[in-house]
Amino acid sequence: MSKQFDVLVIGGGPGGYVAAIRAAQLGFKVACCESNAYADPKGEPRLGGTCLNVGCIPSKALLHTSHLFEEAGHGFAAQGISVGTPEIDVPTMIGRKNAIVNQLTGGIKGLFKKNKVTLLNGHGSFVAQGAAGWQIKVGDAIVEATQVIIATGSMARHLPGIPVDNKIICDNAGALDLDAVPKKLVIIGAGVIGLEMGSVWRRLGSEVTILEALPEFLSMADVDVAKEAAKVFVKQGLNIQLGVQIGEAKPSKKGVSIAYTDKDGKAQNLEADRLIVSVGRIPYTNGLNAEAVGLKLDERGRIDVDGQCRTNLQGVWAVGDVVSGPMLAHKAMEEGVMVAELMAGQSGHCNFDTIPWVIYTSPEIAWVGKTEQQLKADGVACKVGKIPFAANGRALGMGDTTGFVKMLSDAKTDRILGVHIIGANASELISEAVVAMEFGAASEDLARICHAHPTLSEVVHEAALACDKRPLHF
Ligand code: FAD
Ligand code: NAI
């Protein structure tokens, strides 16, 4: 006998678990199946996917610990605090990170219980379309559901000739679990993971070299932000080499030996204790048996969806990293909510133009909307308001004045088209810009709103004033 549900969600990451909870809130009988990718010690699946187990949350825990370590070693003295030379106990740091992961993944199981979502332990695999809906094999059982939401996420992309063992040569999973601070660490890819994990291990004492294929640094960010970030990260001690071509990585006496060609075409070799490969992620559809039911994938292996996450099959939806768009947890969650609401006949909606990006380095980098170079390429004239944190009293008090807020507004209508921040707490400050853009605000709207003093948010306020060339404190 097959189990029958209104909705089956395949995958318990941020896209999947949020879709399942919202669908249950809307009155559907919901199950979510999760394969054992992140099993707990009892062999039970851990929910939360990449984000909670080997992504957003563990990386931010390590970023926090390493930030405190760096502050204790290099920041405290300037404020008259002496603590001697700090030491890092890596197993304790990793244990704390694991405890946070356990707490949060367990918490989602609690949310499933509270919302009456049935958790099925096993990999979901399409069988056929039957009279009572889609038939999906989960473990040894067959589940039938009228609607299916695929939220199977992504996996790290690896490179040929560089076998990842997650001990010496690591992807994101191993990079979050190193047992000691490597003396020399090489990272392939100066993207989000490369910069975040490079920052963690550099702060803790590693000599970090990042090898990036592209000739430009952080090409997806606004050009001013990318320039400032490159300046700051190099000053902090990250050795970032652009325009390289990676060859092979082989085990060596020390750990690993990496062959590459530098930007001038010269053959180079680096010896390191550890290597992290962070060259992007690929959609994960392994074992889904998409071909059995004719589920359409696009040219990059992602599940093909329309602007509302519908696949080519009636009643089958897909959300998160496995579909197009930025691979971000909050984007996956938004899509999950949208799909659940659309299934319920509501007007579910996801505004892909206001999805914020954050890189949790120090200083943090965050943006929403278009970059100045994108607006130029689109032929859109804009006003630019750019204010440094150095002009802000709160930033001075915190001893952290790096960076700026740059606001771009339409030259004719003044509507905010993009906000780019590099500086302390950029991850939190960007929310104001997201809200403003979501409500179609003009820079004048933000300029006329009272901001608490003294706060870093005053820099956002000043950037809005600067769009009209009338900043008050700069
Ligand atoms: P996933 O989180 O990948 O979840 C998919 C789940 O489906 C997994 O649990 C998997 O086991 C399961 N699954 C797969 N196939 C099947 C199947 N057939 N049957 C049953 N279960 C299946 N994003 C941010 O927004 N902020 C950050 O700070 C951030 N930091 C990151 C740091 C790192 C190191 C990494 C790697 C990623 C980070 N991300 C961050 C990205 C974020 O983790 C992903 O965008 C997000 O997890 C995608 O959610 P998802 O639900 O689509 O997929
Ligand atoms: P990424 O796409 O951010 O960066 C990959 C980098 O590797 C790029 O700069 C690319 O040019 C470079 N690269 C690609 N092939 C290469 C090669 N052969 N040799 C050298 N360099 C090469 O991908 P990353 O850092 O792996 O992260 C994956 C995704 O996870 C991110 O795109 C993001 O969606 C998500 N993520 C989000 C975070 C956040 O929101 N703060 C944090 C970490 C990851």
Task: Explain briefly what this protein structure is.
This protein has helices spanning 14-25, 49-54, 56-75, 90-114, 172-175, 192-203, 223-236, 290-293, 329-343, 372-377, 393-398, 426-438, 443-447, 457-467; strands at 3-10, 30-34, 118-121, 124-130, 133-138, 141-150, 154-156, 169-170, 184-188, 207-211, 239-241, 245-251, 256-261, 267-272, 274-277, 281-283, 316-318, 357-359, 364-369, 382-388, 404-410, 416-423. The protein is α/β, with parallel strands linked by helices and 474 residues long.
Explain what this protein looks like in three dimensions.
There is one protein chain. With about 475 residues, the chain is of the alpha/beta class. The protein folds into three domains: about 5-155 and about 280-350, FAD/NAD(P)-binding domain (3-Layer(bba) Sandwich); about 170-280, 3-Layer(bba) Sandwich (FAD/NAD(P)-binding domain); about 355-465, Enolase-like, domain 1 (2-Layer Sandwich), CATH 3.30.390.30. The chain is about 30% helix and about 25% strand. It is built from 14 helices and 22 strands. The chain has helices at about 15-25, 50-55, 55-75, 90-115, 170-175, 190-205, 225-235, 290-295, 330-345, 370-375, 395-400, 425-440, 445, 455-465, and strands at about 5-10, 30-35, 120, 125-130, 135-140, 140-150, 155, 170, 185-190, 205-210, 240, 245-250, 255-260, 265-270, 275, 280-285, 315-320, 355-360, 365-370, 380-390, 405-410, 415-425. The strands form five sheets. Strands 1, 2, 3, 4, 5, 6 and 17 form a seven-stranded mixed beta sheet that branches. Strands 8-15-9-10-11 form a five-stranded parallel beta sheet. Strands 18-19-22-21-20 form a five-stranded antiparallel beta sheet, sandwiched between helices. Helix 1 links the parallel strand 1 and strand 2 (about 30-35). The longest helix is centred in the N-terminal third of the chain and has 25 residues, at about 90-115. The protein is globular and about 70 Å long. The mean pLDDT is about 95. It binds flavin-adenine dinucleotide (FAD) and 1,4-dihydronicotinamide adenine dinucleotide (NAI). 1,4-dihydronicotinamide adenine dinucleotide binds near residues 191, 194, 196, 246 and 358. It is found in: Cytoplasm. Belongs to the class-I pyridine nucleotide-disulfide oxidoreductase family. It is an enzyme of class 1 (oxidoreductase).
